[in-house]
Each structure stands twice: as C-alpha cells, then as structure tokens.
C-alpha cells in the first residue's frame, strides 16, 4: 500500500472516531437508546394508544422473557467478531500474497539467468 | 442470465406484482410485531423477485470465477460488522449502519439482497433485533432499496467522472440514508396519521430516523472508502476478475 493511501486511511479513521464520539461528550446525560425504540414511540403517538406488538422475538419466547442487556451486547459483539474475523482473515491472506508476489518478482529481476 | 433463470425470475416477479400491489395503503429495522401482518406478507412477497435475481447473480459471479467467492464472503462479513455497531448520534439516541453499499458497488444491488437477508435473519433470531415477522420489510429497506440507490449513485458518479472515492463515499452514505427513508415510508403506510394521513406520518418517522442517521451515514461512507482502498491495494486481481476495475486496467501495474 502506498504511503499516501496509508495516510488517507488514518485520517479517515480519525474522522470516523470523532464523529462517533463527539455526541457522547457534547450531549451529557442523553440516554442513547436505540432509534428503533424512538420509532415505536412515534407509532404510539400516531395511533394514540400504547402500541402492543403482536409478535415477540423468537429468542425471547424461547427464554421466556426479555433478552438481558448484557447478553444482547454479547450477541452483538459475536456478530461483530464473526464479521471482523472473516473479513480480516481474508484481507490478511491478500496482504501476505502481495508480499510474497513482490518477493518473487524481485528475485526474478535480480537473477533472470539463474532461472534456466 | 440463462433462459431458465429468466423464466423463474419472470414468474416470481409476476407473482409479486399480482399479490404485492393490492393494499394501496400499505424500515432501520422495524421491530418484531410492529408491523401489521398483511404488510409483513406484502413486503416479503415484494422481496422475492429481488432475492431470486440476487441468487442467480451470485451464482453467475461464482461460476465465472471461483476465487470471487472470497470477496463475496468479505462483503458479507463487512455487512455483519457494520450493522452490528450501534453508534451514538447527535440526537441522543443510537442507531446502526447498514454496510450494504460496498456489496452493491462490487457485485451489483441484487447480489447484496442475499447477504443482507442473512444478516437480518441472524439479528432477528439471535439478537431479538428487527424481527422474523418484519423480515420482509427490513430486507426490502436495508438489502434491496438501499443497495439499489447506492449502485445508482455509484454509476452516476462514474458517468460524471467524479473522483472515484467521492463516488464510493456518496454511494454508501446515500444508500444508508435511503434505507431509513424507506423504513419511514413502510411505517407511515402501516400507520397513517389521523390528520394528514401517510404523508404526515412519513415526515414524523423520518424526523425520528433521519437526524440520527445522517452522521452515521457519513461514517458508513468513510468506512466503505477505507475498505475499498485496502481492497484496491491488496486484492487487485480479484477486483479485476469481477469487473470492478473495468477501464482502469491500464493504470494498474500488471506484472
């Protein structure tokens, strides 16, 4: 990867971190609930009654209650972990392959005659 | 597409058209049980033709080049990561991104529908996030409508010869935003407001989702650009194989 690209990536990731963290510091005391929940509140406001979902998530039916917050975050991390594992496993292979190919090319250029 | 595949697609499309249009009045993830049953079914049926085309599209890509299966897995994994990150936003609530833009740019919008569906099923069953009853609606917004807009945006930017990274950024972030517009629409159609009808409630739902989503859409755009830079540097030959770098091959050092 070229030096310029590396720099670009670092700068871009810094921007991402800033965008993601700024609300935490500026909006002190905000709840940071899910916007899904805000959506269901809006439904209640429109229909005028407390909306009762007509179907509960299968997992909550199986365990017979609400999914505990900690377990939910475990599941979310599991999802992130699975994704990151697969993505960066293959990316790592590509990086190694590039290194290896470069080495082969250099060798060929150094001693083109010794191949025969 | 082969003749047989075309026939199946036409059949399913006709089916969707016949059943999907009738309720004139008619999703982020719409939560389990929050959409009346008839809408769940309608959105599910509307998704079918896209999923079928998507399946054939992935099959074709893999048949043409078996190695591209790695890239497909990576794109799916990217959706897994991105859609699991709940990020605080300026409105004081959290939301998460879709991650479908990357796939749409690389493999076209329909192929992503399958990958998005997998993620949504995972979340609906194991995370109690989204839902099985609302799976159709959520698939349509996140895995079909969003990617379609992303793809269109990317092609448009390519046509006007905008900087490629700007194109990728716009494609991913606008696709992300559009997903939430569709969600608002889906909710609005199901819950029209007493005064003002669908339009009023559409604006209301949009007011809930959009401000939260705008910063996240920007983040998604940036992250997609980052991943694309990495892929372009390290997976050049794969990208050429799937036709992504068409017209730029001359610029790539082929040694």
Global morphology of chain A: elongated
Radius of gyration over C-alpha positions of chain A, nearest whole angstrom:
25 Å
Largest sheet features of chain A: none
Mean pLDDT level of chain A: 81
Please tally the helical runs of chain B, counting DSSP H or I stretches of 4 or more residues: 9
Rounded mean pLDDT score of chain B: 84
Beginning-to-end CA distance, first to last residue of chain B: 33 Å
| Main sheet strand line-up of chain B | 1-2
User: Mind telling me the C-alpha Rg of chain B?
Assistant: 18 Å
Low-confidence stretches of chain A: none
N-end to C-end Cα span of chain A: 32 Å
Figure out the total of helices of chain A: 4
- Approximately how much beta-strand content do the residues of chain B carry? under 5%
Q: How many strands in all of chain A? A: 1
What structural class do you assign from the helix and strand content of chain A?
mainly alpha
The helix fraction of chain B, in percent, is over 70%
Q: What's the SSE pattern of chain B?
A: HHHEEHHHHHH
Q: Characterize the quaternary organization of these chains.
A: heterodimer
Summing up helix and strand content along with how strands pair, one would put the structural category of chain B as mainly alpha
Helix-strand blueprint:
The complex is a heterodimer of chains A (about 120) and B (about 260).
Chain A: H1 3-26, E1 33-34, H2 35-47, H3 58-63, H4 69-110
Chain B: H1 3-20, H2 37-64, H3 68-82, E1 86-88, E2 93-96, H4 101-107, H5 109-126, H6 135-159, H7 164-190, H8 197-234, H9 236-241
Antiparallel strand pairs in B: 1-2
Helix pairs in contact in B: 1-2, 2-5, 2-6, 3-5, 4-5, 4-6, 5-6, 6-7, 7-8
